């Protein structure tokens, strides 16, 4: 079956900071860094490319029209718990911490994180 999504381009303000934050998160979710470019590829072939473009204007705001957040997966709840415990040291802020891991509902096990630039990522355990 072909992948559902080909790739995502992330436009960031601070490439060095974003590379550290996103690199950690994507690696924990099974994505591999591609050699020589700011890109990570998932085992299904989907990739995320990161850059700071001269065409950018204004700060990222996930609450404005556009994409609100990215959701990815890990296989187990243990992996999710490890990500939660490590996330702060890698620049991520936990959202809805008081409702972890059921902030998305009782049948939905997930961790919600926000990067230093305000990007939200939902990491779902078990697909």
UniProtKB/TrEMBL annotation:
Quote the Gene3D superfamilies the UniProt record gives: 2,3-Dihydroxybiphenyl 1,2-Dioxygenase, domain 1
Give the matching InterPro entries: Glyas_Bleomycin-R_OHBP_Dase, VOC_core
* Pfam family of the protein (one): Glyoxalase_4
Q: Which residues form the signal peptide?
A: none
Q: Which residues form the VOC domain?
A: 4-126
State what protein this is by name: Glyoxalase
Q: Provide the species name.
A: Nocardioides eburneiflavus
